[in-house]
């Protein structure tokens, strides 16, 4: 009897120990499960906050997109730019609602000595692929014009032959002279559309044009450049285009290849020119002898982009508008 009582006592003790251990596991395991759940929730929240690839695509305008893979890889590996190209890309996106899309796929990217280049893929009244008018006219409003150095191989231009295939091209008036633009462009190392742009800017490609100070023909040659004209005809197509192109090439050579300085010089600009200098002739008998302060923007972001700088009213100064016509 005593042996049976002892056996029951041992059995009761064993059951008590097992029950106790089972309660301890049940008390600890819920906390372990909550800890795992908390870690999973934290990971889940981070994943939800990470933008999806489609949400990171940047649209510069209605037709140009930057893929998310390109954007994210460049942002992770590209060092801080030495030029204003990064802010220019941002400006391109900001201007997409008010500009003219002309199919530009790249922007001028140089080391700027005058702040943000402000280049935009779209053509606006004050900007385009080759920069903002304030940047091009650097110093005109205060200490004097002092443009950033840019060489002719860095500017963004269209191919003239391709431009002429566009039914809306402003170069239709120049189509009869295309061979000459290519001939002398190749001879002097100048993009043909740059030569044609001078013709559009200066004379609207009308070979009979005579300027306010007696400039002649397509390229508006001044009298000192007409001394060798055949039969004294400075409006001769071949002579006029060749001489104008040769003169521009000489400006590039004299300016160590500085294309902004050279294009401005073609219109009489000079380094250190102020607003007062440019507009000094406004109150004289030769109002159109002023320097066109919108010239660089109209030239590089208008004509060179196959955009009509006049009908689209490019610029901000329009200092020749008050001059009498004719």
Automatic annotation (TrEMBL):
Answer whether the UniProt record assigns the keyword Signal to this protein. Answer: yes
What ranges does the record give for the region Disordered, renumbered to this chain? 38-89
Compositional bias annotation for Basic residues? 38-49
List the signal peptide residues. Answer: 1-19
Keywords carried by this UniProt record: Signal
Q: Compositional bias of type Low complexity: which residue ranges?
A: 67-89
Q: Which residues form the Transglycosylase SLT domain?
A: 182-268
| InterPro entries from the UniProt entry | Lysozyme-like_dom_sf, Transglycosylase_SLT_dom_1
Superkingdom of this protein's organism: Eukaryota
Q: Which Pfam families match?
A: SLT
The protein's name is Lysozyme-like domain-containing protein
Please report the organism this UniProt entry assigns to the protein: Lentinula lateritia
